[in-house]
Amino acid sequence: MEDRINHWIVGVTGASGICYAKKLILALINSGVKIDLILSQAALLVAKEEHNEVKTASLQGVAKWLTEDKVNKGLVKLFSNNNISASCASGSALRSGMVICPCSVNTLSSIACGVSSNLIQRAADVTLKERRKLILVPRETPLSAIHLKNMLSLSQLGAVILPACPGFYSKPTVLEDIVDFVVMKILDQMGISNSLSFRWEKEEAKTSSLKALKPIK
Hints:
Blueprint: E1 7-12, H1 18-30, E2 34-39, H2 41-50, H3 59-67, E3 76-80, E4 97-103, H4 105-112, H5 119-129, E5 133-138, H6 145-156, E6 160-161, H7 175-190, H8 203-212
Parallel strand pairs: 1-2, 1-4, 2-3, 4-5, 5-6
């Protein structure tokens, strides 16, 4: 039987913030984690729009950028979002779980309603029915009552709703610091050891820091 430990499905959809996906994928590769990578068509367009180094919105081109040319080489296997016959579309294919990062509210609502019209949705549906870990990273703001109801429904089914909301007690100075904080939280939920960002651990440090805070004018 195939060992499903450290073999995750990573879906990337068309929400803004594909930089989170890249950092997550590279962190997983560095940790020796196997990845089934699925990119939606909208994710390809977002990658080209948000990052100048992405020259064409092609599946292979964006996957190469996301993995730093490690796609289909050892740990990372790329799947078309239209490939419903892919191994990760079946519950008999053992996987540790699935992360959708970033997760569009369209994808989130489809999963909440049991819709499986593409591979990302189908893999998420399988992850839920097999009682494996499903982590969704929405970035949308503000959220409507419909979005919140869908998130509540999925949370009650066991999914982890992990909004891309960075903490600022780490005193970020560059964009990568903010990305690292969110990806650290994702890796924590996956049970993967990491030290990407600052962790608050000392109660005495917390107290002294809070006393030093000045009111925002």
